[in-house]
Amino acid sequence: MVDDVRRQGSKEVATPDVPDDDFALATRRAAETRLRHEIADFGNEAAGRETGRLSRYGLADREDAPRGREKDRKARAFRALMEALLSDPAYRERYERVVERLQSAERATEDALADVAKELAEAERDLDDIQKRAARLPNGARVYRDAHGVVRHEDGSVVDDVLAATIIWRGDEPSYEEMTSAQARLQQLHALLEALRLYQADVLGPARDRLEDRDEPPTLEELDTILLAIEETMPSHSEASPDPVEPARRDAALTASIEVPSL
Question: Which of 86, 212, 223, 259, by CA, is between 20 and 30 Å from 93?
Fold first, then answer.
């Protein structure tokens, strides 16, 4: 038997006859199955378990709502507390002073990091140039003649006289003092760069976190401690002594890059 005949062009397609009561029963069972899955997924999502349908129900936003309200509550409480604290002239003056000094130190440190990085690149080029112009032994080892005419390896050890006699000097070779000065300069700049990074991470970062603590703003005494740490632990330009080849320019660059303005 056929329940319906559909025409497609000149062809006829027969559709099997399905009793109405069987079709209704199958449809109802499928709907019930889907509903049970929906209820189970909804319950799993509400409990925070993965269902693969998070975007469909949108409960992620609902779960974030309590956290958002808690964040807003803390923000309002922090503002209220800070308003109360800043109503005290002594606290307000100290707090604003520490914030100002912290901002100055952060700017100065960023500038210093950029300047020292440039100085470091220049120092590396200087040492590379010195090494390229160095005299060579027959085995290719670089050697240098010091101010007293003694020929030395890069590690400072003296070259044997027999080997030294094999060197053909051009006349423009860098001296041993130039090479050691360039090496020292490079090491000092590396040390200064590391000191600045540690100061930024271990002093300035925690200071800002403490000043912006929403749960417990710093006390008057803590403000003094923060200010002292900012001022007394800032790396000094003396950690990278100037290159004797260009003392004035290098010293001025480092001093300007690290100095924090006085209040």
Answer: 259
Contact yes or no for 152/146 (Cβ under 8 A)? yes
The answer to whether residues 2 and 17 touch, using CB atoms and an 8 Å cutoff, is yes
Tell me how far the alpha carbon of residue 55 is from its chain's centroid: 33
The neighbouring-strand residues paired with 260 are none
Give the Cβ contact number of residue 168 at 10 Å.
6
Summarised one tens digit per residue, pLDDT across range 66-116 is 566 666 666 666 666 667 677 788 888 999 999 999 999 999 999 999 999
Q: What is the largest CA-CA distance in the chain?
A: 118
Write the single-letter amino acid at 214: R
| 3-state SS, residue 8 | strand
Q: For 3-12, 99-108, 150-159, which range has the lowest pLDDT when averaged over its residues?
A: 3-12
User: In terms of Cα–Cα distance, which of 105, 93, 125 is closest to 200?
Assistant: 105
State the first-to-last Cα distance of the chain, in angstroms, to the nearest integer. 100
Instruction: Supply the pTM of this predicted model.
Output: 0.59
Closest CA to 152 of 126, 124, 175: 175
Spatial neighbors of 227 by CB under 8 A, at least 6 apart, are 97, 98, 101
pLDDT digits 0-9 by tens, 155-196: 999 999 999 999 999 999 999 999 999 999 999 999 999 999
> What is residue 204's DSSP assignment?
I
Helices within the chain (DSSP H only): 20-46, 54-57, 59-86, 89-133, 161-164, 176-199, 205-211, 220-232, 247-258
Contact present, 230 and 105 (Cβ < 8 Å): yes
- Do 176 and 152 form a contact (C-beta atoms < 8 A)? yes
